[in-house]
Every structure is written in structure tokens, then in C-alpha cells.
Design goal:
It is built from eleven helices and three strands; from the N terminus they run ααααααααααβββα. It is mostly helical and about 300 residues long. The chain is globular, with a radius of gyration of 20 Å.
């Protein structure tokens, strides 16, 4: 049975590179298996997907093969996520009674995320110049990684549970990965000219704002009105490299070495690559009376 307690559910398992790909992870076999998910009860389908993705993460695969498999199960996975019950603030008592530290939704999101993370590693392992750069595949993987991390934060908003350990380090790491891949030194022009509608800068700012709201337990956060206004707030929120001077009034500091979204104190930030987040006025007004100490995360040197 899959684990329900793990310090960091995003850590990749050790994989034997000499292991052959089992038949269950051939495209035709996995597609047939995913078709049968529709006949399963919701709970049974969730457990089946967790076990399948966990097993997949332990198998080495050539470049793009894992991406193909993830594409094949994209629609069934979306349907299963949509069918899962919406948990409220009482979820913590249920988890405690069962001896779990993650909900089933969080568990599934972590299992899928690990495979997406491995997909990028497998793409990066292909020497440059040996074939066409899979730009659209990378963007697809990053978009789904951002989406799964957002799902973790939204669960935290609804349930008042903490996000799984490592969530914010993963977010900071994904955005840095994107910047390095695009050869940009700052987020201002990152992604210009890339295909598709996914904007990693907007996705990063969106999750940082959600993280602030979740940590401060803003009453309106998670409600339809809040989520509807979030797009406008993201567009009017600035993310800039943190210089040597004092951040401007109302700014938050994004420290990529901390497993936390932002910090409100403006003391020296450990590590390099810190950012200054200046929220949109409407969002700032909503959070100005909350206690910023609630979202402080443990200082760490771990990198996502």
C-alpha cells in the first residue's frame, strides 16, 4: 500500500537505470488501463492512480516516453480530481484519526508531480544539438507542475492544513528552472515569444499571492469572489530582483532557500536570487490587517 506519511513527497525515488520498462507502462497497456478508470468508484480510482503513478516514478524511461504516458492519462486524471470531495476545515481531525499527514488529493498530486519532475530530468539528459528541443513538452510539464502546486495550496486554503513539506521549495525551483532554460536573468521578459498561453511568471506570482493568503488565513481566500479577482491582482503585482537597498513599503521578500512563499520582514535574506513581490493594491488592502508571522517557514538550504 502507498505511504500516507512522508517528510517530503516530492523527492524522487532511486531508480535502477538498467531496469527494463514493464509492459504496464507501454502506451497501449496504460491507455487501456486508464479507460477502465471510468468504471471505478471515485475512491478506488484515486487509489489506483496513486499506486500507478508511484510505480511509474520508480521506472527509468527514455526521453519523452514518460511525457507520452502522462499525456495519455491527462483526461482521466482531470476527471478523478474533479470528482474528489471538497474538504473543509475539519479535514485535519480526519487525518489525525487515520494517522495520515496528507489527504488523498495531496497524495495523488505529489505522485503525479514526481513523474513530471522526472520527465524534465529525462529531457535534460539528452545532449544539446542531438535533436529538436522539445519546447512545447517542457512548457506542458511546467504548466502541469504549477497547476499541481496550486492544487496543494488551494487544499491548504480550504482545510487550514499546511501544504506538504517542500511545496514552496519546488515552486521556487520550478521558476528558477524556467528562467535558466530561457536564459533570462530576471522575470520581467521571461517567456517572451514562447508558444502557448502558459505564462510561468504569472503562475509564480499567482501562487505566491495564494500562499500569502493561505498563511494569513484570509477569510475571503478560496471563495469564488477571491479567486475571480486573483487574475487581476496577478497582472498588477510586481516581481523584481531584490537589490541591495531596502524593499519598498508593502513589499514581501521571496527567499528561494526557504520552504515558504514570502516573508514580510526586510532583514538580510539568506542565499542568492531573492525577489521583491509588490502585491496589487486590492490584494494588499485585503491582507493588511492579518498577522504576517503566520506564514514564516523554516530556513533551509535545500534546493528544489
Amino acid at each position: 500500500m502507498f505511504e500516507v506519511r512522508r517528510p517530503n513527497c516530492y523527492v524522487l525515488p532511486e531508480v535502477d537505470p538498467a531496469q527494463a520498462i514493464p509492459d504496464e507502462f507501454s502506451a497501449a497497456t496504460l491507455l487501456g488501463w486508464s479507460d477502465r478508470l471510468t468504471a471505478m468508484a471515485s475512491c478506488q480510482a484515486v487509489v489506483g492512480l496513486i499506486l500507478k503513478f508511484d510505480a511509474m516514478s520508480r521506472v527509468p524511461m527514455p526521453s519523452r516516453h514518460r511525457a507520452l504516458l502522462l499525456h495519455l492519462v491527462e483526461d482521466p486524471l482531470r476527471r478523478v480530481f474533479a470528482a474528489m470531495p471538497t474538504l473543509g476545515p475539519g479535514a485535519g481531525r480526519v487525518l489525525e484519526r487515520r494517522g495520515w499527514d496528507l489527504t488523498m488529493e495531496q497524495r495523488l498530486a505529489c505522485a503525479v508531480y514526481r513523474n513530471l519532475k522526472q520527465t524534465l530530468e529525462e529531457l535534460d539528459a539528452v545532449p544539446a544539438g542531438t535533436g529538436p528541443d522539445p519546447v512545447e513538452t517542457r512548457l506542458w510539464v511546467l504548466e502541469h507542475q504549477f497547476g499541481l502546486l496550486e492544487r496543494q495550496v488551494v487544499v491548504a486554503l480550504r482545510t487550514h492544513l499546511p501544504v506538504p513539506s517542500g511545496t514552496w521549495l519546488e515552486l521556487h525551483g520550478r521558476y528558477r528552472y524556467f528562467l535558466q532554460w530561457c536564459h533570462h536573468g530576471s522575470g520581467g521578459e521571461a517567456g517572451a515569444g514562447l508558444p502557448g498561453d502558459f505564462d510561468p511568471l504569472a503562475g509564480y506570482k499567482r501562487l505566491l499571492l495564494l500562499g500569502i493568503a493561505a498563511g494569513l488565513r484570509v477569510a475571503e481566500a478560496g471563495r469564488d469572489g477571491f479567486m475571480a479577482r486573483l487574475r487581476g491582482w496577478v497582472a498588477d503585482t510586481r516581481l523584481e530582483a531584490l537589490g541591495t537597498g531596502e524593499p519598498e513599503a508593502g513589499a514581501w521578500v521571496v527567499d528561494p532557500t526557504r520552504d515558504a512563499p514570502c516573508r514580510s520582514d526586510h532583514r538580510v535574506v539568506a542565499g542568492r536570487g531573492a525577489w521583491m513581490l509588490v502585491p496589487a493594491p486590492g490584494f494588499a488592502e485585503l491582507t493588511q490587517d492579518a498577522d504576517p508571522a503566520d506564514i514564516a517557514g523554516p530556513s533551509t538550504s535545500e534546493q528544489a
